[in-house]
Amino acid sequence: MITKYIRASMERAKYETLEDGMFYGEIPGFQGVWGDGDSLDECRDVLQGVLEEWIVLGLQLGHPLPVVHRGGFVGGR
User: Fold this and answer.
1) d(Cα 34, Cα 54) in Å, to the nearest integer?
2) Closest CA to 52 of 27, 16, 24
3) CA 63 → CA 43, 50, 66, 77, distances in Å?
4) Kind of pairing, strands 72-75 and 67-69?
5) Separation CA 75–CA 60 (nearest Å)
């Protein structure tokens, strides 16, 4: 279940190439979840790691997580 949530969330990620050639990625609707890297693959790996830590922390603190369905963002509380 958590794997599907992470996969669906990562499908929403938006990436861009910065002026210095680095890659930046974030997931809309997930405040503070972003990553960067020298390559798109590295950026994706960093972003997924940040997402996983963000989920764990949110659960530990009792925060509601955004509702995500494969192919779309439904929202959060």
Assistant:
1) 10
2) 27
3) 26, 16, 10, 9
4) antiparallel
5) 20
* Tokens found for residue 51: 């997402």
| Amino acid sitting at position 50 | V
Question: What is the SS3 assignment for the chain?
Answer: CHHHHHHHHHHCCEEEECCCCCEEEECCCCCCCEEEECCHHHHHHHHHHHHHHHHHHHHHHCCCCCEEECCEEEECC
User: pLDDT per residue over 4-18, tens digit each?
Assistant: 999 999 999 999 999
Residue 72 burial (CB < 10 Å; 0-12/13-18/19+)? exposed
Mean pLDDT (the chain) is: 92
